[in-house]
Design a protein that fits this description.
This protein is mainly α and about 325 residues long. The protein is about 70% helix and about 0% strand. The structure holds fe (ii) ion (2 copies).
Length: about 325
């Protein structure tokens, strides 16, 4: 049972936390924070880290088959960036008191979530363009406001990540632009890839606001700054002129701008598909997890060797002292 002094201290701590949030200040790892705030951040940041790491797979699939040396080196750099994003984010989550091992175990045992978008296949080169343009584009809309997230290590990690994401989006757009201004077959390939990725990228913003119960709390804590629907609107508004520049059609025949409300009116998102993929029954869920698990097992000797080396260095320093 909490003593009276503990309760008083807790109230004072809560007041200090609330004041920092109200004042747009940052919460840092050693600051007191409500347990629910900590748990929410651990869940969100680790899911985000897992998404970066699993997200390497659909594109790594094309590294050996990229159409030129230049494309290959750009794609390798992009996939490497995603590994880096995973590392910053795992490190940010670790400051909240969870270990890297706990997070990895949750992922490979299928207990943790990652973005559903990476459970789709990438059958053609044009998918590299569509992922960069649409998936990284949607990620940017989601992530730019996270640079101001109230938790310091998360916000700071996002600043660097967002800079790299804008390069990813440009390289995707550029792949699609080349294809859509190439032969009729290439243009068709670009259109097919965009048709495949458009709707799943709209789903990346999550359920509509009235079906998203946790959002309000995250907004009050200033982790999240805009609602799912607001971000989806922003993304669609960004895509429309770019569809035109690409000379490709938007797969949503109902999409139009409503002057009166200042909103984009969109066709119905297939939420049943979203739920299926989320529940682990998407086109590539099992494959993605299997691959991640195998990579973890195959890398066991590297972790053991690194730990043995670190121990050896520590012993050497101790004897020298
Ligand atoms: Fe990323
Ligand atoms: Fe990216």
């Amino acid at each position: 049972m909490a003593t009276m002094t503990e309760e008083l201290t807790e109230t004072a701590e809560q007041e200090r936390f609330d004041a920092l949030i109200a004042d747009e200040q940052r919460i840092e790892p050693r600051d007191w924070m409500p347990e629910k705030y900590r748990r929410t951040l651990i869940r969100q940041i680790s899911q985000h880290a897992h998404s970066e790491i699993i997200g390497m797979q659909p594109e790594a699939n094309w590294i050996t088959r990229a159409p030129s040396l230049k494309r290959k080196s750009i794609l390798i750099a992009k996939v490497q960036d995603e590994a880096g994003h995973g590392l910053y984010l795992y490190s940010a989550a670790q400051t909240l008191g969870i270990t890297r091992e706990e997070m990895t175990d949750a992922l490979i045992q299928g207990r943790a979530r990652y973005s559903s978008i990476f459970n789709y296949h990438t059958p053609t080169w044009a998918d590299m363009g569509a992922i960069g343009w649409l998936v990284d584009g949607a990620a940017i809309c989601n992530q730019v406001p996270l640079c101001r997230a109230s938790y310091g290590p998360y916000g700071r990690a996002m600043v660097r990540i967002c800079k790299e994401e804008s390069f990813h989006q440009r390289q995707g757009f550029e792949i699609l632009y080349e294809l859509s201004h190439g032969t009729p077959e290439q243009k068709q390939m670009a259109q097919d890839a965009v048709d495949r990725w458009y709707w799943p990228s709209l789903m990346m913003f999550g359920p509509s606001d009235d079906a998203s119960p946790n959002s309000a709390q995250s907004m009050a804590w200033k982790i999240k700054r805009f609602s799912n629907d607001e971000l989806r609107q922003r993304f669609v508004g960004m895509c429309v002129p770019q569809f035109e520049a690409l000379g490709l059609g938007c797969p949503d025949p109902d999409l139009r701008y409503d002057e009166e409300s200042g909103q984009w009116i969109m066709g119905e998102i297939d939420w049943a598909e979203f739920e299926e993929v989320l529940a682990g029954r998407g086109p590539a869920n099992a494959e993605r997890l299997r691959h991640r698990r195998d990579a973890h097992d195959d890398g066991a000797w590297v972790r053991e060797a690194a730990a043995a080396y670190a121990q050896k260095m520590q012993d050497r320093r101790r004897f020298a002292a």
